[in-house]
Amino acid sequence: FLILFINLLIENAAEEPRVLCIIQDTTNSKTVNERLTVNLPASTSLSKLHEDVAHKAGYMIGTFDLAWGNISEMTPLDQSSAITLSESGFEAGKRNFLQLTDRDGEQPQMASDESGTADSSGLDDSSQERFIGPLPRESTGGCSNDYSSPSYSYSSILNKSETGYVGLVNQAMTCYLNSLLQTLFMTPEFRNALYNWEFEESEEDQVSSIPYQLQRLFVLLQTSKKRAIETTDVTRSFGWDSSEAWQQHDVQELCRVMFDALEQKWKLTEQADLINQLYQGKLKDYVRCLECGNESWRNDTYLDIPLVIRPFGASQVYGSVEEALQAFVQPETLDGANQYFCERCKKKCDARKGLRFLHFPYLLTLQLKRFDFDYTTMHRIKLNDRMTFPDELDMSPFMDVEDEKSPQTESCTDSGAENEGSCHSDQMSNDFATDDCVDEGICLDSTGSNSLTFELFSVMVHSGSAAGGHYYACIKSFTDGQWYSFNDQHVSKISLEDIRKTYGGSTGSRGYYSSAFASSTNAYMLIYRLKDPSRNTKYLDPEDFPEHIKYLVQKEKESEEQEKRQREIERNTCKIKLFCLHPGKMMTMIENKLEVHKDKTLREATQMAYKLLELEGVVPLDCCRLVKYDEFHEYLELSYEDDEDTPMGMLLGGVKTSYMFDLLLETRRPEQVFQPYRPGEVMVKVHVVDLKNDTIVPPVSVRAFLNQSIAEFKQLIAQATGLCAETMRVVLERCYNDLRLLFVPNKTLKAEGFFRSNKIFVESSDSPDQQLPFTDSHLWKLLDRHGNTIRLMVLLPEQLPGTLFNRTAGQKAAGGSDGSFEGSKAARKPVEAILEESTEKLKSLSYQQQQQGSSNSDSQKSSDTSDFEHIESPTQELDSGSSASAAADNRELEDRIQAAAAGGSAGPASDPDNQYAGEERSDSEVHNDRSTSSVDSDILSSSHSSDTLCNADSGPIQLANGLDSHSITSSRRSKAHEGKKETWDTAEEDSGTDSEYDDNGKSKASSTPFMYFRVSEPRNQGEASGDAQKCIIVHVDKRITLAAFKQNMEPFVGVGSSQFKVFRVYANNQEFESVRLNETLSSFSDDNKITIRLGRALKKGEYRVKVYQLLVNEAEPCKFLVDTVFAKGMTVRQSKEELLPQVKEQCKLDLSIDRFRLRKKTWKNPGTVFLDYHVYEEDINISSNWEVFLEVLDEPEKMKSMSQLAVLTRRWSPTHMKLEAFREVVLESSSVEELKEKLCEISGIPLENLEFAKGRGTFPCDISVLEIHQDLDWNPKVSTLNVWPLYICDDGAVVFYRDSTEELMDMSEDERSVLIKKESSRLLKTGHRVSYSPRKEKALKIYLDGGPAKDSAQD
């Protein structure tokens, strides 16, 4: 029996699904590329998962976190939870990716198990090759990535418990700052002096106090338990904003600027001279006459010594720091032309000039000048050559042992303003101090008892190029003599071998280009400390801290604990979407976010949601409950009965970054009872259809089970709606245009295609309609109309007197006495009054028109329209008499509207195809906006797109009686539909009407299939602003064509469909004209906006054209003039004749037809000149949204043939640094010789001295006068213009020319500076790049007053 029992357990365990977890350890650089795998039963708890991972990784429980690895915002899993893996979102049979991360910013503690489960190899410094180069970080802030060398290996990253040190977080590109701060922190004398300074709160704000923020940072570096801390408070005290974090600077420059700022802040304190005491040295700059021995000298101070790696012009580099120091103090002989004028000899003599060290600082800073300028490529470069430096540096060999100050010395000066003129000032720091203070350095003139041996303790390393890179620091601790790498937030142990790898260079010979193949990671700054036991100090221990530092330590510890508690709260807080159909906001669905602690009960969470949604005073708390909700399907998944005291963490499945469901705060009336929602139920929205009134009422929600039969489902609906189940017809709408009649009683809901959320229509009238096939029934037609009807907001134009339609109305009135009477009678009322009186009449007329058209529409179906356009009206058929009467009434109403629009004014008859006298200009005319297209490309196709297929609820619910209530799903999908990206088609055939429409936009067919069209009561837009434009709401079947839509809009616009244009308005208020009359409105959705503008619509073969004036010698050469229409078969001269009155009226340009030309426009470039006899579509390709240039001529047209070539030329005068105006040259061929001859004619330059070059870029090919002389390809060696490198094959090319004998103007620096500013201003205005003015790096500044002053001019 025991064996059977064990076998049974094994079989059960084998049947249980298992969860495969793949864990990435991100706490250690060596393990970040490794993966741990655990395969556990799905019933395993989260706490057991943490135990298994800890055992496998060798960490102690509770010192690390596990989080989902495929989610950017990682929320740790609850390691004490008893929830199973399956309940926590783990998927059985699939790979579940997790990340092992630090807990509270501290690295995991290694288990004390001696068996070696932990990775102890990283603790053995000798076991593997190490490199202290840059470590991979989550964000390098734009630094270069080629820092590491293949021969280097990264050292392991030790946590603080093993290194004892804390890293600094890189804000973005602040690695240079982190390196310097860690070096200063590891300098005992600087750290202790900073601790001894006490902040006076009454004198300065803590936020802007640089010493205080440094002091606080050092305290955190010494006492914090975190692996890395932020430096934002320090940079904020510098006066920097967030943009400074993205500026990388030189670490030596930062050191100087920071020391200056500290000296300013420490004035009148004990630390006033700290920087000079620690870092300042003194040297002598001298010149000695070699004839009389007279010496002139002065004393200079320095904070660092810059050491040249490669002397200027030399091919060899200095191989060591000692060599560079020797070269630094090596004197040079002034002889020949460089002789020195000796005041004693009163003549020029040979002399010796050099530097001599007088004092060395306690902390000696050496800067290796790795950044240089290559005059061959004219770019900054980095010298990666090898330069060694010793661990201990003896400075005594660099002491000048020549005779001491002799009586022959004539003059001497201390450092001050004069030191700016030192011959070696380019090698020295700019931070010179006066010699008034007591020097604490080492005097070289002493008896020699002082040691001059310095020990290396900091190496600041740069990795990258001159364009950018990464800094980190290698620092030796004076406590244990161990070297550490401080690489932003990573701190690791390193060895002396790692330090030697920062020498740079390669093992080969040191040639001029050797650094190009060397490692880019090398030492940049070295800091040595004098070996003097009497002065060398140790770091202050926490028990020896001054009282104000102890107080600061306690304060920071409390702050850190509070932050830790807050993080713990955040880690245990469930954040989930919360919805509510708010009773106080007309049952509008509102959304919020509920943040609740996992230990809070459901009752407490309900109270929080109640207050969050502001339901107090609207509905009692006991009438609210939280339920599980699916927003996408609008499905109520589960109600939590008897779970009021259950913790939210258990109900929601733990704390997660995101949940696969939401919560809904459901409300009820006091007399109602909450319905229980159980898993497995589906929600059904039931719409009751009234066939008598053609209405569909708002939905009623019913819940059912998928295994219920249709007969049982009908009984359920009957209980909810009160309808009769025996005569009930149920129609399921699965998606757009997919209506299914459920007529099999025994079929289940699942078999019929029901899902979590469903929509059905029910009808229970005992009418003959039930006997008809479903697709022929009135029910199907009503539902089909409901599913395809959309609501559009249509903005009508203002009805201005004197339009073409008014004159046409006068013609109709004159045609008969009845028409005249009606016209004059209607003129007494405005159009608005007639529209309001006749709204209901128009509705009935539209149905009657349908009956007329439906009688013979079957035989004349258009092949381009969809099948849905041939639907009969759901209303009853009218007899022929009533149809005729309706037509007469329609004509009568139209005449009244026309007469009212005419306003009683009479005028002569005119051609209806002419433009209006007072026609509105298009958007492109008013705003000169290229983005306004004349083609409505949004109406793509009569077939329904995939986006439209699911928009089942986009139509109004009650169409006949004017109700347009929408479900929540409908409004959401409409918003989503509005946000989708539209595409625009500008094909040539789209520009005009299609073949099935006549010249007036009317259908050539004898009848048009009826499409639902209804207009709501009009309302005014913009009354407050005085711009009263009428806006009407149109309910229309989106399968209607644009032509039919325009015909239906005629009574409301007041003119024929060919006399107004339709523009679709997008979210950004851009308008695009709709011109494709055969396309449907299928791309429109609810609440889309349409603007109607008066103006003749395009006919077949017509194209809307934008005309711009070409002004070749103006600052803005392209100026919009008019929007006009060109037709296929029209000649260029005919189009010019039509343009003349338009530009005269609209642009005040009085032109002669022979004194202007039209030419091709490509972006801003002028192209082919169009000749008068050219024909559009035959000689000139024309398309929708076409653009042309109109160019005014000073003389009659010279272009007579297409074989000619028009070139725009411009003379460059180097002597005057000036470009002359453009002049056009017309060539008979593409010969370079002819071009030169023409240029000689107009300029007078001898042919042998003339040089030319083609302009670059877009017209007018602007170029700086400082660049044109050398940057263009002058005098190309070609014989024809249509070959490389010219490729001048079309009119409009720009050619510069010059006289080769002219010399460039000789300018002073001031004149050149003025010209640079002038050219910069000119080219920036035209939008051209000023390439001769390179981008200046942002200067590194520390603001002592809290921040930089805003430059309004710059802004």
UniProtKB/TrEMBL annotation:
Compositional bias segments (type: Low complexity): 844-865, 899-913, 931-947
Annotated ranges, domain USP: 166-531
Pfam families the UniProt entry points to: Ubiquitin_USP47_N, UCH, USP47_C
GO biological process, one term: protein deubiquitination
Comp. bias (Basic and acidic residues): 918-930
Gene3D superfamilies: Cysteine proteinases
Gene Ontology MF terms: cysteine-type deubiquitinase activity
Segments for region (Disordered): 105-146, 401-425, 808-828, 842-1004
GO cellular component: cytosol; nucleus
Cited CDD domains: peptidase_C19C
Top-level division of the source organism's lineage: Eukaryota
Bias (Acidic residues) ranges: 985-998
Biased composition (Polar residues): 109-125, 408-425
Protein name (record): Ubiquitin carboxyl-terminal hydrolase 47
Organism ancestry: Eukaryota, Metazoa, Chordata, Craniata, Vertebrata
Encoding gene per record: USP47
